[in-house]
Amino acid sequence: xxxxxxxxxxxxxxxxxxxxxxxxxxxVCNASCSGxxxxxxxxxxxxxxxxxxxxxxxHIRFRDVDGAVMVFVPAGEFLMGSSSEVIQEVMKSxxxxxxxxxxxxxxxxxxxxxxxxxxxxxxxxxxxxxxxxDGGYERRELWxxxxxxxxxRENRSYPAYWTDERWNAPELPVVGVVWFEAxxxxxxxxxxxxxxxxxxxxAGWDFENRVHLVYPWGNVWNSVNANTKEASIGHTxxxxxFCPEGAxxxxxxxxxxxxxxxxxxxxxxxxxxxxxxxxxxxxKGTRVLRGGSWLNAAIEARTSFRLPPFSGDFILFxxxxxxxxxxxxxxxxxxxxx
Length: 338
Hints:
Elements: H1 7-32, H2 43-47, E1 60-62, E2 69-73, E3 76-80, H3 84-93, E4 109-113, E5 116-119, H4 125-133, H5 145-154, H6 179-188, H7 196-204, E6 205-206, E7 211-212, E8 260-266, H8 274-278, E9 287-290, E10 321-322, E11 326-328
Parallel strand pairs: 8-10
Antiparallel strand pairs: 1-2, 2-5, 3-4, 5-11, 6-7, 8-9
Helix pairs in contact: 5-6
């Protein structure tokens, strides 16, 4: 918290955090009163829905265990974070945002990553139902030590909003998952959570022009490309609903808006260093969320935005948090789709 400097910005941030909590409560209440028709809510019904079909090529692979479509991200260096020039331009476009919200994105720096795969879509309720049906909540080997303690303490056997028809349609992204659940699912799928650096490279690195994009599709905000507050939808949308227009350079969908996405990384200051302990899955501390959500403004859906740590842990359970998985090149999917 000290990284934000003087006391006044910290108070302002606390105020914004509580405003966000109130907005979540209001949005959930509105969704409850909307009168929408009931959607499938049982695990069996969710398993029966098919994922979107995909054209296959050398840059797309599939996971048999959950049907996930993965896109390829080549090895190389990229610029991670935001430059001071970009931050100034963003602040001109979005009034009322304190400069403290951008400190964690600086300094912009070069990071080298090996090639990897990342899910094209956020994990859906349909896919998570397979994890539950396969005993994912009963298999100790899938969980971190602290995660297993949490699962037993909370007596969890499904995510927080699993039985809530406002959020549990098969094609919607699973929400209300804590970081422990996301880690367990990806392990079950033979994958892992993406590191924060992997997430950002897949979301906003223009490989052809070697520049960092402000949004997955470019540097100019377009409200028809993402499910954020500006879209006025007020809830999650089926994964891929804003593609291909809102796709990232590697073809990943919904990396801006819909739900915040868990990364494997601990929330630490830049520059990013995978060897400094932030990628230790057994370490205690706040983990990174990326991408914005249906509830949040466009400024938080930028590819470099890092959600600052909150006091308390309500963010872990709200209907704005989800995830997608990644795989290293040495990991081979069950079916390469060719």
